[in-house]
Design goal:
The protein is 38% helix and 8% strand. By secondary structure, the chain is mostly helical. It has a three-stranded antiparallel sheet, covered by helices on one side. Helix 2 packs across helix 6 and helix 5 packs antiparallel against helix 6. The radius of gyration is 21 Å and the shape is elongated.
């Protein structure tokens, strides 16, 4: 449905994403974002009045985190009574794994890091992808899942999300469903960042079972 604004129209691109444009007197200007967002509104007004958009430059403060993101959840975890009750050794191990997750890219060629992703955008398939990347070291995969769950619980306590997408998720990738196909990779890319390129396939290696006696 089109908004009742002069010269504004929308279209669906080849990937099925809804985009907006300003068209007047044979000139077309693509508008990033969607109506209601500050950058979109600034660009629309600039196009309407024939000016260059005047966008605010936002300089993040050291340690700042996007609201309701994994980075914000991590800050909550570190100030929680449960976290403060853990031993120094547990702090060190969990901090290492958590920050490894937070600074990792959502896909190999992506610019977006997990720390900036909203917890509400994290799906069960994303957890499976992360675990499949650590299939060769199942012990590490187990503790990585624990670290991610701690962030998810913090988000649930703040009512950012209503349920845990990793609930009853097995940390050992023992079946073919863990493999990534192109369609699933594209779903991850389109959900988390508009600028992601198609990620390469990842294939989990089965964990060796106990040796026969």
């Amino acid at each position: 449905m089109e908004l009742e604004r002069p010269f504004l129209s929308s279209y669906t691109d080849s990937r099925g994403k809804l985009r907006w444009r300003f068209r007047r007197e044979g000139k077309t200007i693509s508008l990033r974002g969607k109506p209601g967002e500050p950058e979109f509104e600034a660009r629309y007004r600039a196009a309407l009045h024939g000016n260059d958009p005047k966008l605010a430059v936002i300089t993040p403060l050291p340690g700042a985190a996007r609201p309701k993101s994994f980075g914000a959840a991590w800050r909550l975890v570190k100030t929680s009574p449960e976290w403060k009750a853990l031993s120094a050794a547990t702090h060190s191990k969990n901090t290492h794994l958590t920050e490894m997750f937070l600074i990792s890219r959502v896909a190999p060629d992506a610019e977006v890091l997990w720390r900036d992703v909203l917890v509400s955008d994290f799906k069960r398939r994303h957890a499976k992808i992360i675990l499949s990347e650590h299939a060769a070291t199942p012990h590490k995969a187990k503790h990585m899942l624990t670290a991610i769950r701690r962030l998810i619980v913090a988000a649930m306590d703040e009512e950012w999300i209503e349920s845990d997408p990793t609930f009853k998720l097995k940390w050992v990738p023992s079946y073919k469903g863990w493999r990534l196909d192109r369609r699933r990779t594209e779903e991850v890319r389109d959900t988390l960042a508009d600028r992601l390129d198609a990620a390469p396939r990842l294939r989990a290696r089965p964990v060796a079972g106990p040796s026969p006696l």
